[in-house]
Amino acid sequence: EFSFGLETGAATNGDGDRVYDTVQPDYDETLSYPVTGMGAATRLSDKLILSSANLRNAETTQEQAMMRGAMQTLERQMIRGTNFDASGFDGLDDFISSGEGSIDVTVDDGTAGVEDYENAVRTLIDEAAFEGADLSNLAVVCDYDFHKNIRESITDVVRYEPMADQFGVSSTFEYDGVPVFRSNAIDRISNTATDTAETKAYTVNLDAHYLGVLQETSMRPLARLGPQERFAVDFYGALVAEDDGAHISAAEVTGA
């Protein structure tokens, strides 16, 4: 950190040059990322495989279902963290409770209008930007009801502003130049119990947060133990937050 008056009282060496105190930056344990494994196994009987040969292939259908389930589990774990699965890696909720993230907006769904949700997302973006996040790297992720309320509040010109898809997912619109994603990994506001407050929207710095992968989601055949095909799907990785969640600004909504 910069300070003034360094030369005041500074020592000198044998040549008469001043010698200033220096601080050597170092890493600490907060910059370590625990890697967690995730997997599932299933099996299909030979009779099912043979009987489905002339219809939809049972093996292909099961493989697609397993891969889709893996992606949904990863999405839920990244957003909800140990509130989704305590055995999984830390997620956005964990960076709020034990990191530098914060809940900066509270909305009461019983009394709020759609414009209150628009104001909430503006506050989230401003708070993340104040903490140093570059808007070009920022995104908002929220539940479907939060997303719908923002769309109802803003004008059609803003709502349908063309934008490129990110990660192959359409965010529907940009707000103040920031893409707004909706995710069914977050429980809908309409399903939230009365007077219960839950986090429904987050800002994420996509430059500082990423999925650190040691092994991509892979499908592996298992040994046959009878008249059936057995296989497993596994993944090894961690959600890496290089800012310890400092750019995560969240909105809490109280159910009506």
How would you describe what is shown here?
By secondary structure, the protein is of the alpha+beta class. The chain has a 6-stranded mixed sheet. Strands 3-10-9 form a 3-stranded antiparallel sheet. It has a two-stranded antiparallel sheet with strand order 1-2. 26% of the residues lie in helices and 30% in strands. A hairpin with a 5-residue loop joins strand 9 and strand 10.
Quaternary organisation of the protein chains: single chain
Mean pLDDT, to the nearest integer, reads 83
Radius of gyration: 24 Å
Shape from CA axes?
Answer: flat
Structural class: alpha+beta
User: How many DSSP H or I helices?
Assistant: 6
Strand order of the largest sheet: 4-11-8-5-7-6
Low-confidence stretches: none
Head-to-tail CA distance between termini: 47 Å
Residue share in helix = 25-40%
- Number of DSSP strand runs: 11
Succession of helices and strands: EEEHHHEHEHHEEEEEE
- What fraction of residues sit in β-strands? 25-35%
Largest sheet: 6 strands, mixed
Task: Name a few traits of the molecule.
6 helices, three-stranded antiparallel beta sheet, 26% helix
